[in-house]
Amino acid sequence: MSLERLSPAGAEMEHGQSQLFNDAEHFRNSMLRKYVLDGAYDEMFTAEGEARAHYRRLLDMFAHMPQEEIERCKKAADLSFLTQGITFTVYGEEQGTERVFPYDVVPRVISNTEWTHIERGLVQRIAALNMFLHDVYNDGRILADGKVPREVVYTCRHFRREMRGLQVPRNIYIAVSGTDLLRIQSGEFVVLEDNLRVPSGVSYMLTSRRVMKRIFPQLFRAYDVRPIEHYSQVLLATLRSLAPEGRPEPTIVVLTPGVFNSAYFEHTYLARQMGIELVEGRDLVIHDNVVYMRTTAGLKRVDVIYRRVDDDFIDPLAFRAESMLGAAGLFNAYRAGNVTLANAFGTGLADDKAIYAYVPEIIRYYMDEEPLLNNVETFLMSNPVHRQHTLENLDKLVVKAVGESGGYGMLIGPQSTAAQREEFRRRIEADPRNYIAQPTLEFSRAPCLMEGGIQARHVDLRPYILFGDKATVVPGGLTRVALKEGSLVVNSSQGGGSKDTWVVNDQSEGTEDAFTRS
Amino acid sequence: MLSRVADSLYWMSRYLERAEHTVRLIDVNMSLMLDEASTTANLSLERRWKRVLACLGHPGQIEWNGDFYQLTHDLTFSTRSHAAIVNSIAQARENARQVRDELSSEQWQQLNRLYHSMTAAQREVSSYNALTNFLPTVVYDLHQFQGVTDSTMSHGEGWQFIQLGRYIERAAATTTLMDVYHRERFDPPNSTSAGYEFLEGAGLLRCCSAFEAYCNAYTADFTPERITEFLLLNPDFPHSVRYSVDCLRSALMAIGSKSGLHVADELVRVSGRLQASLSFVDIDDVLSQDVGAYLSNILQQCRQVHERVFRLYIQYSTQTALAMN
Fold first, then answer.
1. A464 CA: distance to closest CA in chain B (Å)
2. ipTM for the predicted complex
3. For chain A, which domains are there?
């Protein structure tokens, strides 16, 4: 393959930048002709149009690669996703419509220095949120101290009174989470939202890494990319560390809503990677507050459930009676301490968009530290001053319903019509608690391979955090891309895609190529 | 292993076996059709394709209307009939998809590829020639799936359920096929031109991919008795009823010992009786009695095995299971 046409790695770097730019002249005129650099932070170029250090190698490779070759790589990646069946189900269309997850082959590169900061910030944040949940569901110190208003907590849609006084193993409520980060104009990463219930996407992170290694092996080797493949192993260890007491050899399962769930591929993938059973609600039987699964050898006891079913659907006796996805009696078994659920019930409280505004305060309260990762500025509609400001500036702000996710129930001010703004004004006035507003963020853009060359598209970043006997963030995560030009919506249900995320050691500039030399 | 998983693997395997059998029936009959005497072509076309439908257990939604291309196309691609090959393969894939974590990725990829090539052909194949060229590729892909299954999946309980599904389907299909051909012997077509018997005998064998194996055993001398003996009682040929039942029974024994259930007595008895009715008879015993009744009895016993398997491993009552814990 034409990668071999690259001069031996290292040679071009010794000649410095000038050669790169000479070679790149033609490239800039063809592949990069539609690459827009304006206000937003660009992941690849500085404002002056110079390639950032950790992107140079990548740019160089694409510059030397004929366009047909790039297209061929893209096709190979698509085909690989299709035959592996890495698809998601699109709701609302003909039953069982499967689509290949839209995927971009240009990796997003993050330097290790930046990553280390993100990692520390995320661990700090999740640790604080775990303490917050434990506090709110037990003593309520933070409420008594007036740091977070009681009415905000008690009016949360995902607040679970049933969790009061219930002790969970190691006081860990949030074992698995995926926090959405954005990089704003200054280059700083900020937290957009915490996904603390059943975040998905980790299988795309793992499988797209595998595909990247196959289609760009040489580039991959030229960079010192930190590995992510141990995610499943760490997930298993995390779940095991949460087993109920007295169960030294716990049986761990993944609970899926079933084959029609849009993330079903992920559930099977994780179960397989961990080597544990993938169960559905109908496989479980609860007797005397003990959970069993139906096997060909009779009933087998279950100790830890990594559940990918929402709170509301997990037990028709305790919550929604019409749910077919859960198992009757599961919540009582959980209360009795005979089974652990990860994540715990009621973690949705902490990712409520109104609570989000208090997270910096929550971090200071429990950790006695300043937050390492900042929030996006947030106006609470229940606060009269904030509300006043928001209603006056609806055309500049983004308004979000607190209980919604996936990009639904939003008003994007600058792109809205007068009628839509009027509609939201009425909704906000009718139910202020249910809405928040944030400034419209011009978040960062990264290079993507589109029709007719490489173009800049908006991206976010969702790293995955595991919290058990220790905290682990695998280096990287899912970079989601708004594939439509100018779009700010990265959700796969609304025209978003993803790309592989490489955390590279900073010194990788000089360390290549012990392999070639030996 | 989860009961639901065993259920899916079993059905996945049955659907694939069914697809293979249907492909072969269509393929063999399309080719034999070309050898038929042109004078009686119309009559025997109808007989031939109605017989194919009978061999498939008279599937609903598909009927003989005088156009063999329409019929074969429907049997291959019609989404209306559950018996169509495309549906068997879609069902197999759907079952596989529900237990993806139990299959090796090679298996899943192979099945997925087969499914996609099937749906692509559904859109593209629009002529007799194209269909004739396409069908053998399905068998090829199905064989590849079996090879991949045997070489990449652990031969544990899941694999045994796959074996069970494959051989119970095969035993039933071969028995049905022989039953249909047997009944026809009492009602031969009036135009028995020279070579007809040869073609019929060879056709029946080819439907079970048994032509070469038969010739090796008996030379190319086709008598109904020998064909019956070979397809029913041969202990070594993988499509004979006896061989299928032997495999089915050894899969059941392996499942019994792996699941650690010691209440499988009834299943042991039922499957043992089925095996005995094939192992401890000779062809004269079979032919001297009512052959049709004998074949229906074999089918009936296969059905019993299926029911017992479900009652024991898959749809057992929770109360009974709790009592045994």
1. 22
2. 0.81
3. 115-203+226-367 (3.40.50.11290), 378-439 (3.30.1490.270)
